Amino acid sequence: MERLLSKRILSLWVSILWFLFWNSPVRTQSLCPIIPTPSVYEPINGFLEVEGRLSVNEKGIPEPIRAYLIKRCTQELKLITVFTPVSDQLVFKKLFNVPEDYYSIRIDNGITIQYSSEESCFYALTSLFQLMEDLDGTYRFQKCFISDAPKYGWRGMHLDVSRHFFSLEEVKRFIDLMSFYKFNTFHWHLTDDQGWRIEIKKYPKLTEVGAWRDSTVIGHYSATPRTYDKSRYGGFYTQDQIREIVAYAAERYITVVPEIEMPGHARAAIAAYPSLSCTGEALPVPGLWGVFEDIFCMHESTLDFVKDVLDEVISLFPSTYIHIGGDEAPKTRWKKCKKCQAVIRENGLHDEEALQGWFVGKIDEYLSSKGRKLIGWDEILEGGLSENATVMSWRGTEGGIAAAREKHDAVMSPGSHCYFDHYQSKDRNEPLAIGGFTPLEKVYEFNPVPKELSHDEAAYILGAQANLWTEYIPDMNQLEYMAFPRTLALAQVLWCQNKPDISYFKKVLVEYQFPKLDQMNVHYSKALFYPQMNLFPAKEKVGITFSSSYGEEKLALKVTGEYGKVLESKEVGISDTLFLQRTKEKNLVTYEVSSGNTDKKFYYSFVSHSSLCLLVTMNTLPDEPYSGQGWFTLSDGISGTIPWKGSDWLGFDEEKIEISIDLEKKTTLTGFNLGFLEDPGSWIYYPEKITLLVSKNSKKWKSIEVLRTGRQSSVTMNVKARYVKILVETQEIKEGNPGSGHVPWTFMDELILNFEP
Ligand code: TNX
Questions:
Q1: Mind listing the pLDDT tens digit for each residue in 605-662?
Q2: Which is the closest atom of ligand 1 to the Cα of 291?
Q3: Residue 244 among the catalytic residues
Q4: In the 3-class helix/strand/coil scheme, how is 117-131 assigned residue by residue?
Q5: Which parts of 356-496 are beta strand (E)?
Q6: Is the pTM for the entire model greater than 0.70?
Q7: Mean pLDDT of 687-706
Q8: Is there a catalytic annotation at residue 609?
Q9: Cis peptide before 33, with omega less than 30 degrees from 0?
Q10: Does 394 contact ligand 1 (Cβ within 6 A)?
């Protein structure tokens, strides 16, 4: 009996404890507020509060961290730091024999930080500050244990200050934000066609002339006709200012890697010193974006110039890596240049690609002799990798894979996941961007080590970085908008040993990090709250479902037709499915969706037509990053938009593209229409020839030439057929145009076929 009673009491206790556990703040607090998420976060019941003064044990704290702590507490918080040998309020201990940059924090009645390096001591403080809640001057910390170390050594953010200039204060703010999320590499893109931004004492014209342009293109550069703002624009950093930034970053354990572009993207330098180019012609600093033909000429004096510039760069930047660009250097001028051809002959080089390889090799040798390492965009692979080069892979991950296989280090920065100048939502009112679609989720799923690499090869992948090219980022507001919150997703990718799933990440964003970004006045994107519409193929119609990436159940839907006439207004649940039916004539309908979490209304415009959801066989496959939803993209009722936003087009990099359709029965075909995109800067061109082949039996084919007028190619007809083939042949890119010598990209959408149902 007694035993039974004690068993009952025990089980009662268990239930009470269980109840307390589930209902105590511990459970909600198990969501770790810190980004990047630490490897171990174990909350303990209760809080530690600090008010007025923070007493720090003076033993064990590295000197620079002590200085940083004092600065932060006095300048940003209402805390006076007191250093004494007896304090146990904040204690630091150095550890040995632990993973690189490991740290731990224990918060109970005091705070103990254990660290393995100065960097990791700084990271511990970063975590501590993120954990801290400011209750009007009282600072509250969740009691907990944290144990943590980063996954990758290169955790980078890039900033292009050439296309648009950012002031010293803005660059510092960018560095501060990077440091908040434990990035350690700032890739500073200091020179490009549209502006040279670093003072070089030996060549003053680089900034006197090269830092200024007379006019800048308005809107997207693919728009026709082009218009310009006709106002002078520019700026540069003096060497003292550069030192200031380098020191500011170093205080935050961030290395600044400078980039000096060569031999291409060099029009600003050429504007200052025309003798650097093959023609010697005086050219202005361009106010247009893209790839230019005039690049550095490969004669001896260019090499001297580059070495002189690098000497000054090396004296300013302690970074081991010096980025020399190397991307997008058309070889048209070199082919016709006597001096370049002489260098090719004298050095027994195969062609102009090899000439670039030769040049990069010389620079590599020079940097190595100064104890530095060359890093360049993946084009530096094309002329053969020079001995000590590290590759930055931007055209997919292939460049990084090739480098690792050749036992060279690589940093991943593929356009598909790491280009923060791409769109991040499908909202039609997104501010103008270059193109492409890289939403938060895409960044989050990025894995810097491709599956193709073996364990040993994977060790050559140093890490990754996001690139912020600023053609369409004119100011700090827009920079923050493009960078946040995607930067936090990348921080997770680069830091977390095992990153939590994306729904956990989104919760932390919304509950903890967005309020922090608000506090810091960061102008971040709220695309996370935008409702989304998902399309799927149904029989002869398009299925539509709705979702919200942040869990709302109900959305408001308004459907309007031509001239804004409201056709329908209702509430839709996220489990509802709607259908868009085929119509005989083309018909424009717009779906406006909105949710309670954002005041933003979201629009999707469809053109319903007679071949919605027509099954198409892709005999030629689109390139993976531009494959949308495969064939369905061609007949989903959503026409590819301009500027190009990525997924609504299918993109091919083949000379001949063939697609075919089986209409399942013989019928009368009356019309055909297919849209194409042209964006020369991205090497996307209209095709040369479009042919329609029709057949009743798939043996005998009748060929019909299709005319293209601008974007649309169409033909009317009256033929009986069951099988249809569409053949697209690309044009050769003419010399002098971006991408000449390469197969152009072909982007197509939407396919409309008129036939008797
Ligand atoms: C390609 S990425 C470039 C840049 C552009 C960028 C725009 C790379 C090495 N070169 O010059 O700004 O695309 O996304």
A1: 899 999 999 999 999 999 987 898 999 999 999 998 876 666 789 999 999 999 999 9
A2: 11
A3: no
A4: CHHHHHHHHHHHHHH
A5: 373-377, 390-393, 410-412, 461-468
A6: yes
A7: 95
A8: no
A9: no
A10: yes
